[in-house]
Amino acid sequence: QKEVEQDPGPLSVPEGAIVSLNCTYSNSAFQYFMWYRQYSRKGPELLMYTYSSGNKEDGRFTAQVDKSSKYISLFIRDSQPSDSATYLCAMSSQGGKLIFGQGTELSVKP
Amino acid sequence: EAQVTQNPRYLITVTGKKLTVTCSQNMNHEYMSWYRQDPGLGLRQIYYSMNVEVTDKGDVPEGYKVSRKEKRNFPLILESPSPNQTSLYFCASSSSVFSPLHFGNGTRLTVT
Lengths: 110, 112
Hints:
The complex is a heterodimer of chains A (110) and B (112).
Chain A: E1 4-6, E2 11-14, E3 19-25, E4 32-38, E5 45-50, E6 54-58, E7 61-66, E8 71-76, E9 85-92, E10 98-100, E11 104-109
Parallel strand pairs in A: 2-11
Antiparallel strand pairs in A: 1-3, 3-8, 4-5, 4-9, 6-7, 7-8, 9-10, 9-11
Chain B: E1 4-7, E2 10-13, E3 19-25, E4 31-38, E5 42-51, E6 54-57, E7 65-66, E8 76-78, E9 87-94, E10 102-103, E11 107-111
Parallel strand pairs in B: 2-11
Antiparallel strand pairs in B: 1-3, 3-8, 4-5, 4-9, 5-6, 7-8, 9-10, 9-11
């Protein structure tokens, strides 16, 4: 069983839709949770970074962490074609090793 | 501009021919790491370095070497590349092991 599971998609939505991206994990030692966005032919770039359970909002993006269920989510409101990319969840423990999910490919259609 | 620079962006080589992929960062970051990205497998860590002269194996270190002689540079060395090392490689850095990573734009390697 992988430490981090992420549905690879692809996920296709119309412009303006609310998008929900999810990851589950098995290691209860994970304390730091991140979402990266990766455009084609580019390296991943950090979107959201959270340390604890709860919600964190940044513009149209909301990251949610539920440590009791070992489940994290990224919500994108009012999705735009420019949001079309691959979204990677990542998490680490105090030891510092960062584990990535497989990535979910998102396409937002005009 | 703060960035992680990898070279080359694309590389085609033959089995057994030694190659080096360079990585340089201008943010004075202590932590640097190499990943490979393969379809269906996501990003997997090859090697990482907590500081100068300190390196350690990640999840998939076999067939790779690294060195960290100075803070800004972290080259990835394939002494005898094989076709199963055909992949997209990313170098990344951060100010500490607990901080988010800054990634380079990747090196697409093909070994025939």
